[in-house]
Write a structure and sequence with these properties.
Elements lengths: L4 E7 L2 E7 L9 H16 L5 E6 L10 H8 L7 H14 L4 E5 L3 E2 L1 H4 L6 E5 L3 E3 L2 H4 L7 H9 L1 H9 L3 E3 H7 L4 E3 L4 H13 L3 H33 L8
Helix pairs in contact: 1-3, 6-7, 6-10
Length: 244
């Protein structure tokens, strides 16, 4: 694709999507939201793709939203469609049926950790760390993490992550249930690929049906959580004196 965005490689029936903005620690811009959503949708309908691995280029998985672009948007210099790109990516992550495996090769912050709740398996490098910094930033959580973190991690560990904005080591993320396995840094991608290949050996229709059934019970919860989070953002940034 472009020199800065999502790099795509096929390993037989496994498609590897790499967030490729290493100079910005793979932080998400509006363009990257769109590119990843489009790449995931394409993989979902591709008859030759049986599983997808998502990873990051360079030393980081993802630093979350690009704060430089966020400041530009706040100053009134928003790219076209800025308001729809993030929700569209979340719609895609929650709606695709292709099995999705994350290879967390380095630090994940913000969306770089909340998006892991939409992945079916998560392999994490031993030296990587994760942080949901929303409380420290004075903003509500995002990406339905207000419901998915308690579901994945249990209430106490989710509260520590969200209310405390605490850094999680790979071992802590594993113990919480957010991560499937901790790997040596140099093998995290190969171990994620191995797991993806095991899934890819099975009938494509069967694996997608199983994922759809497993996720079905969460989809209404996710939609409701996202609506509450969006409303919390609107309330937070409503001009003073405006009450409705």
């Amino acid at each position: 694709m472009s020199d800065e965005g999502v790099r795509q490689e096929d390993h037989g029936p496994v498609r590897v999507l790499t967030l490729d903005r290493p100079h910005r620690r793979n932080a998400f811009t509006v363009a990257l939201y769109r590119q990843l959503a489009a790449s995931l949708r394409q993989a979902d309908v591709d008859e030759g793709v049986r599983s997808v691995v998502l990873t990051g280029a360079g030393p980081a998985f993802s630093a979350g939203t690009d704060l430089g672009e966020l400041e530009a948007i706040a100053a009134g210099n928003a790219p076209d469609g800025a308001g729809s790109a993030f929700p569209d990516l979340l719609d895609t992550l929650s709606g695709i049926n292709v099995p999705l495996i994350a290879a967390v090769n380095g630090p994940g912050v913000g969306l770089g950790v909340t998006m892991l709740s939409f992945c079916d398996l998560v392999f994490m490098a031993r030296t990587a760390r994760l942080r949901a910094p929303f409380a420290a930033m004075g903003v509500p959580p995002e990406a339905a993490s207000s419901i998915l973190f308690p579901l994945r991690m249990g209430w106490q560990k989710a509260a520590r992550a969200l209310l405390g904005s605490a850094w999680l080591t790979a071992e802590e993320a594993l113990a919480s249930g957010l991560v499937t396995a901790v790997c040596a840094d140099e093998t995290v991608l190969s171990e994620a690929l191995a797991a993806a290949n095991v899934i890819a050996e099975h009938d494509r229709r069967a694996t997608r049906t199983i994922k759809t059934l497993m996720r079905a019970g969460e989809r209404d919860l996710v939609a409701a959580a996202r609506a509450r989070e969006d409303d919390a953002y609107r309330q937070l940034f409503r001009p003073q004196g405006v009450t409705s």
